[in-house]
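Trying the structure run again after the queue cleared.
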Amino acid sequence: MTTNPSATARPWTRPHDWAEVVLGVVALLSFLWTDTSDAAMWTMIVLGALVALDGLASLAAPGQVYGEGIQIVLGVLMFISPWVMGYTELGGIAWSSWIIGALTAIAGAAALPLAQAAHRGMAGQH
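Done. Tokens:
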């Protein structure tokens, strides 16, 4: 399957990046509907905001391949944060971290080939 570079290079159109924005916002707000600690709450607020902002940056500039790599790293950090920050006993927020983190890493990995195709398409326009 070949990817049409012009279709992947249009800003604000890639569903993977929109998914990253939504996942980031859900992570950011997850403390509102789960039992949490200060460490868990601030971890999810910061990582959620970074995921959403990076998703917006990827939407605005779809040829920036590094943004998808950052998204994968943020997803992994969110996934491991219940163990690192010590909130595995808080079921709701811990499961939110694990699920949103995994989905963020998957969305970033799925968007990586599209970002590479957009980057190649943009490189040919210079």
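The two ends are 25 Å apart (CA to CA). Worth checking whether this holds up in the mutant runs.
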